[in-house]
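Researcher: Here's a chain I'd like modeled. Treat it as a single chain, no partners, no ligands.
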Amino acid sequence: LDADADADADCDSSLGTLSGEVVQDFPWNDGDEEPPAPNARVLAQQAEQAPITIFCDEEGRFTTPIMSGSYTVYAEDGDGCFSAEQSIELEACGEQTIVVKLIDCID
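Model: Modeled as a single isolated chain. Structure tokens:
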């Protein structure tokens, strides 16, 4: 009997895990500093669908299970700051870890 047989069992979920962090990468930051963006919102959107909103913690970190598929991901904070969009592919039972950089703010 193989004690590790269950460890390699196929996953039967259609969900994957999206996680990462949001940082502040503004031109006016000192040097290469990219501090976390506390309580930012990450939005993950599939084509023609409403975006899924994921809330970050005080350190700008997030993790959530979402349906597998292709997503456009971007972030914003409560001060009108935003990131560029990035495309990801999330596989069922997989995990995608990303860094989303806030790059500018609306005055």
